[in-house]
Amino acid sequence: xxxxxxxxxxxxxxxxxxxxLQKLLKSVGKNSVISSITKVKISPDLSIAKIYVSxxxxxxxxxxxxxxxxxxxxxxxxxxxxxxNQVRRVPALxxxxxxxxxxxxxxxxxxxxxxxxxxxSDLLEKRKSI
Length: 130
Hints:
By secondary structure, the protein is of the alpha+beta class. The chain is built from 5 helices and 3 strands.
């Protein structure tokens, strides 16, 4: 269970990293890509932050994720400048791709009747192999 302090720091990180990512994408010329931080989970000792990044269009998610991984140290440095008055140490940043947009689009296609979620389910194939 997250403490109030963890929730406050996670909120601060979410806002500041969103700003940093938008500047990063503009600087490399990716103006047509929309990225956002959907969730930040921080460890109880505030040393590790798990950051979930959502990218639209989804087909560019991997390239944006690679860009973020390359710029991780500069992102952490910029974050340190922004939050220097709130925390003693800047947490280590671990980025994850949040594929909830992709999942939502699959569900919407299934509801429209374009795809059969039962026949195309990865979970169903995993169960068959067991």
